[in-house]
Every structure is written in C-alpha cells, then in structure tokens.
Design goal:
The protein is mainly α. It is built from 45 helices and eight strands.
Length: about 800
C-alpha cells in the first residue's frame, strides 16, 4: 500500500488521529529509502499562521535555498500573493532525490490559500517527493491531481492478519477468536490496538470496549501518579514542550525527576530525537485537554496565565495575546509590545478584537502603567483599518495623559506620540496634519517609537497627488504646505516618507503638461526615497516615470519600469501595502496603453475593500476598476457604483478621484449614447481640474471620451489639452508597436524569449544565465507568461508553446 510513496510526486495520507500515519510513514521510509536519498521531515504545530509559515519555509530552504528564501521574503501568502507563491513552487529545484514529509498538515492547512498547497503538490522539482500526513480530508480537487497518491483511513486499518502480527511482535500470541474480538473493538485503529496491547501486557486481559477515551483513561491516565497527571494538565495548552518550559509551567526552579522520566519513557509521548522537545500523542493530548476543560475556571485561568507568561518571555507575542485573553489577564496584554506584528494578519486572526477587549477591560491606572504599549496597540488599530476605534482611543488616551502625574519628560513623550497619532485622524488636510506633526516634533524632540522605516508612508497609494490634493484651485497652496510640513515630519522620523513631497510636485507638473520638469523631479524623488529605503515612494516615482515613458513614446523605459524597477522595490520591502501599491501602479500603466487584461486579477474583478487596502487607497483602486470596466465594454457597472465611489472620494477629500470619476462617468454615458449626460459629467470634471491646470487626466483618457473631449473642452484649455492628448496617443502607439507587435498570447519580446527557452526545458538558472538576468527578474517574467498563456506549470507551458 505504501510502496507508491517511492515513486509518486505527492502522497496524501489522511486519517483521524490514532491511525498510525506518522509511524507507518516513518518506518516505511526508514526501511525502503536508498542510502543516498534525503529525508526532510517537517512537523506542523498549533501556532500563529505567520510563525507556521516561516518554519515551513525554513524547512524548504534545506531542499532549495532559493525557493525558501523567496517565500520567506514574500511573507505569509494571501489571496493576492497566492499566485506568486504558487509560481515559486512550480519553479522549485531539487538537486538530489528527496522526500519531504509534512506531518500534521491540518495545523498549517488554513494558514495559506489552497492554490499554494496545490502548487506544492504539483511542484516542478524533478527529484522531490512530497508526503502529506493529515487528520482531515484535503478534498477531491487536490487528491485527483496527476501524480498524487491518496491513502485514506480504510487503507490504514489493520486486517486481522496484521493485528495478529502486531501482537506477535510484542510477544503476545492471540487465538483467532481473540483477534476477531480485538479487531471489532479497534476497527483496525492502531491507537486502539496499542492501548489493548498495553492492557494485556500489564493485566493479562483486554478491555471490552471500543471507547477510545475510556481506554485512554483506564489504561494510561489512571496508571499515572497524581503528580504526573497534574504535570500533563499543566503543559496541555501546548502541543509540545521542552523540559525548561515544563519547569516554568510547574512553577519549579528545578524540574522534578519524574517529569524527565515520564517524558522520555512513556510510549504515548514522542521526542524530537534530540531529547529537547517532547510531544504527547494527539489522542493522549486530546484526552488530557478534555480533563483540563472540566477543571474549575479559576484553575484553568492560572494555567493559561502561566502559558501566556512563557510565550511573552520567549517572543511569541501572538500566542501570549491568545493565552492572556483566555485567562482574562487584560492588563498583561497591555504589557506586550505589538508593534512588530503585521496589522492585516492581526485582524484576520482576531488579535485586533483581543487588543480592543484589553483596552475596554483595564483600569485607568493599568493603562497609565503601560502607556508606551497602549499607544502601540492604538497604532495597530489604525493599521488594521479600525479607524473609528483608533480615533476614539487617541482622544481618550490623550485626555488620560494630560491628567496623569507622570514626570515632565515622560509626559511630553507620551503626548508627542499621541499627537503624532492624532495627525492621522486629520487625513488629508495637509495644514491640520502639519500643525499636529510640528507639535509632536516639539514634544518628542527625537524619533517616535511608533514609526518604522518600512511602514507605508503612502498608505499603499501610488500617487501622492491623488492622496493629498483636496481642493480645486488650492494645489499650489497644498504643495507649499507639503514642503513645509514634510520637512518637520522627515526630521521627526529621520526620513520616513523621504521624497514624497517632491513626488507630489513632480506629479503636479506632469498633470499640467510640463513633462521635462516632471521627469527631473521624479528622478529626484526616486533618489531621495532610495537613500532612505522608502520603497513605497519609489514605486510611486517609478509609476510616474512609466507615465512619462508612454507620453514620450519610450518603450524601453516603460518596460524597465514594469519589469525591473517596480519588482525590485517589492523585493526590497514586500509588505502587503507595497504589493498592493505595485499592483495598482502597474495597472495604471497598463490601462493607459489599453492592456487592462494584463493587470492584477483583484483589480479586474473589483475586489476592493479595507481588507486589502488602507481606506486612503480605495478611491485610486476604484478608478482603476472603473477604467477597466470601460475598456471591457461594461459601462453600466461603473454607472451603478459611481455614486458610492464619488461619495467616498468626497468624504476623503480626494479631488483627483472625483476628477477621474466624472471622466469615467462621461465615458460611460457616451458609450450608452447618452450624449447630454456625458457632456455634463465631463464639464463637472473640467470644473474640478482646470482651476489647477490639471490637463493630463483628460489627455490620458482620450481613448475613452474621444470626440466628446474636443466638443466640450473649455476654450482657455482647449489647445493645451488636445495637444497633450495627441502626444499621448502618439507615444502610446510607439510603445505598443515595440512591445506587442507580433508575439503570441500578447507576450512582450522578452517574455517570448523566456518562454522559448522554458519550452526547451532549460532550468531557471540556465535561462537567467543565457539572458543575463537575475532569477528574480526571470520569475517575474514566468509569472506573467503563465498568466497570459493560461497555464500553471512548466509542463503545461511546454505543451501550449509547442502548439503555436
């Protein structure tokens, strides 16, 4: 039955706990693998999803260092990065025959989307065999993939002959009648047989029951001393434990001798082979946790509190939050530094609600005693998109701080941190934000603890102008305010957001048709941002250079922005907000050359929400989606969402979203033959944009509004806008001729070169060397090629390419 493991690309062994999956797989592989074959065993555990994924990636590094590194840099895959993570697996390389065993897979299954696990099962490494051991069924869609062997619980049930052999190996000869009776009780379940065998060896008789919990209680639990039982109850919050951890949970400076003896000699507790970590069998752990759940709540809270203390002391912040929350130790949650936790993961996993509970259920004194950490918790509320609670707690903590009797210096620092947080509530009024930033700068006198240099200054928006231009006719004042206030902010944070003010000015110049001056400032913004590793600003500057490249007909520069610059900045800082910003920057550039089919799927599908984006970036994403709808011949969908989109733009004081929104509305009405309504919408857009001489939104939208532009353009801007539109169309045509003239599947020239070599079955390293590009650049090309050709693996690509 298990022989297929030796040849199958992937083997899935699924059965409930106690069916002997791990034992069967380990004994089979130890016996049958050749001496030169490598065995890599990964034990999944109950832990936070980011931690589980990081440990898995480190295991993969032992097989393919490059794959493991890429996946670690990418971070925990989500619905937006699942395709990229899957592509990495499909291009995985394995130098020697290797078996990767993923034990207790059910613990990590929900950490990432199924598309990633599908790719692991279909991985592209020729010499790699994956064996997945899991309690739960994986699903028909995965089981039925080519090259996947499925072994289920029916396959693992022992026959009567196997049962007799199992007992004989332990020196017990059974009669046929005994074999039949035991098999009826155990139903071929190895853990039940193991318990029955233990019962017979100790008492000379079998238990007349099929109740696994009854057997576990009478055969194992009741045979333990009271101290041993209390010990197992103490460590039951954890799936595995070390002896040091056990001592902590028992509150003992020196570990009693019985703990090591029990851990090392009990057949229901496994060791990691090094004697460092111990893991109770899942059936025993389930039983112990059942006993523990029946304990009085006060006793359980003491154990949970102790578990939280262990996690807090060992840097396991997520687990500490969970244990403290279950124990009702809210003040201890306030003692944790949550600044390093990813906000989006906190919200998905429920940590944000736990932190809010801590704020709600602690006293004034408790909050005052943990002011620094409370401020960081509030900051995380902002990152998680809980803007209402963020504003409320900013105000409440500011009032508490003002009335506190802290020493003057400490009080000023707390006030400065809170004032800085309060500035976020004034988005996007540059003057009001600036006044608070200046005040924070005065109070702090140094760098705030809240701002990390890799935090998204742009809130994931590729356009600073889009973010901060709020009032028609006030752009020059806004630019001056940005200059003044950014100087204070950059000084306060030691450069966070550097180049953002220059980028806004560059965008303003470009939108006014001053391409040469805009190009110089875009390069300066790129230089300033690059010096401070402000990739979010670099992405926006690169996007502007891409727009300039189209306007100037420079296909080489356009490709460089899409294929080198933006991917490079993501690689340098792959946080989610930067990834979303890059997707939107790419989408904008693809839309202005009429290639919306190549942009990120989430934008094409209109999957736009605060789950994916900061609120400040949603209007930008909505405009991209609206443009895609118009390019795709679906104007009615934009008209259906227009009022909500424009209402959000108004509430965020996002004037550029209002300009583009009305241009899209004009295009939508035009497409439906409603000329009068189209003219009215376009005139409304002119009314918002022309007081600041913003011409390029119309010039870049010429393909959508066409003759409507010429007929309705105000006289004082008519010649300028139409001239820019003409240059834009000429530049776009030049770029398109160079990029997509004659290559299949809409590939670019470089993508076609990569696809040809991949179709010849060259490895990634060989292709990268032949084309003088990095593996990261190559994988960006391969991801795009797979999407355009409609395949998910190298094998499918070869087949599709040979049919051309």
């Amino acid at each position: 039955m298990l022989d297929g493991i030796l040849t199958a690309r992937t083997t899935i062994i699924s059965a409930p706990a106690g069916y002997g999956k791990t034992t069967a797989a380990r004994e089979f592989l130890d016996k049958h693998l050749l001496k030169n074959a490598a065995l890599c065993w990964h034990n999944c555990m109950e832990e936070s999803h980011p931690s589980a994924w990081m440990r898995f990636c480190r295991t993969l590094q032992k097989i393919d260092a490059e794959t493991g590194r890429e996946l670690l840099e990418m971070g925990l895959p989500d619905e937006d990065t699942q395709g990229e993570a899957a592509a990495v697996f499909m291009e995985m390389e394995c130098a020697e025959e290797t078996w990767l065993v993923i034990d207790d897979f059910h613990h990590i299954r929900k950490a990432v989307p199924d598309a990633v696990w599908s790719a692991i099962m279909e991985h592209g490494a020729k010499n790699l065999h994956t064996v997945i051991l899991t309690w739960t069924e994986i699903g028909a869609r995965m089981n039925q993939k080519p090259g996947v062997l499925h072994i289920g619980q029916d396959d693992l049930r022992l026959t009567e002959r196997e049962t007799a052999d199992y007992f004989e190996q332990g020196g017990v000869a059974l009669t046929q009648e005994q074999v039949g009776a035991i098999n009826r009780y155990a139903e071929g379940w190895i853990i039940a047989l193991k318990l029955q065998k233990k019962s017979y060896m100790e008492s000379g008789s079998f238990m007349d029951t099929a109740d696994i919990n009854k057997m576990m209680r009478e055969i194992v639990w009741d045979k333990l001393t009271g101290d041993e039982q209390e010990f197992l109850l103490c460590v039951s919050p954890f799936e595995s434990y070390t002896l040091r951890q056990a001592a902590h949970m028992m509150g003992a400076e020196e570990l009693p001798g019985f703990v090591a003896a029990l851990s090392e000699n009990n057949s229901f507790i496994r060791t990691d082979g090094l004697g460092v970590s111990f893991r109770p069998h899942s059936t025993l752990l389930g039983f112990v946790r059942g006993v523990w759940n029946e304990k009085p709540e006060t006793e359980r809270r003491i154990v949970l509190d102790c578990a939280g203390d262990w996690c807090a002391a060992n840097g396991q912040i997520e687990q500490a939050i969970c244990f403290y929350h279950q124990a009702g130790e809210y003040s201890k949650i306030l003692s944790l530094n949550v600044l390093g936790m990813e906000s989006e993961q906190m919200d998905v996993a429920g940590y944000t609600d736990m932190l809010l509970d801590a704020l709600e259920n602690t006293s004034l004194d408790e909050k005052q005693n943990s002011f620094a950490n409370v401020i960081k918790i509030i900051f995380n509320l902002f990152g998680a998109g809980r803007y209402e609670q963020f504003g409320r707690w900013c105000a409440e903590m500011s009032a508490i701080a003002a009335e506190s009797d802290m020493p003057g210096e400490s009080k000023a620092r707390v006030a400065g941190e809170l004032t800085l947080l309060e500035s976020f509530t004034k988005y996007n009024d540059i003057a009001e934000m600036g006044a608070l930033i200046r005040r924070a700068h005065e109070l702090l006198g140094g760098r705030p603890s809240l701002i990390r240099m890799n935090d998204a200054w742009t809130f994931g928006n590729p356009s600073v102008l889009f973010m901060y231009h709020a009032e028609a006719g006030a752009l020059d004042t806004e630019l001056a305010d940005m200059d003044e206030n950014c100087a204070h902010y950059f000084a306060l944070t030691q450069g966070h957001g550097s180049g953002g003010d220059v980028l806004m000015k560059a965008e303003a110049l470009f939108n006014r048709g001053e391409a040469d001056a805009a190009s110089i400032l875009a390069q300066r913004a790129l230089y300033l941002a690059g010096n401070k590793q402000q990739e979010c600003v670099c992405i926006g500057a690169a996007a502007l250079l891409g727009r300039l490249a189209v306007f100037q007909g420079n296909g080489g520069e356009f490709v460089d922005v899409l294929e080198r610059r933006i991917p490079q900045y993501i690689k340098q800082n792959p946080v989610k907000s930067n990834r979303m910003e890059a997707d939107m920057a790419n989408a904008y550039l693809l839309l202005i050359i009429d290639r919306s089919q190549d942009m990120a799927e989430w934008i094409q599908d209109g999957e736009i929400s605060e789950k994916r984006l900061f609120a400040m970036s949603i209007p930008y994403a909505q405009i991209l989606y609206g443009k895609h709808l118009l390019h795709s011949g679906k104007p009615e969908i934009w008209l259906g969402m227009e009022s909500e989109a424009l209402a959000l733009a108004k509430s965020l004081r996002c004037l550029m979203a209002a300009v583009y929104g009305r241009i899209l509305t004009a295009a939508a009405y035009r497409a439906r033959g409603m000329t009068q309504e189209a003219a009215g919408a376009l005139q409304a857009a002119f009314g918002l944009a022309l007081p600041d001489k913003l011409y390029m939104p119309f010039a870049e939208s010429n393909v959508l509004i066409g003759q409507l532009l010429e007929e309705n353009c105000p006289a004082d801007a008519h010649d300028e806008i139409l001239s820019l539109a003409e240059k834009q169309e000429a530049g776009k045509a030049a770029v398109l001729r160079g990029l997509y003239s004659s290559f299949p599947f809409g590939m670019t020239e470089r993508e076609y070169e990569v696809a040809k070599l991949a179709a010849m079955n060259l490895s990634n390293s060989q292709i990268a060397e032949k084309l003088f590009i990095t593996r990261d650049t190559l994988k960006t090309h391969i991801k795009s090629i797979h999407k355009k050709v409609g395949v998910t693996s190298r094998f499918e690509l070869i087949n599709a390419f040979h049919k051309i």
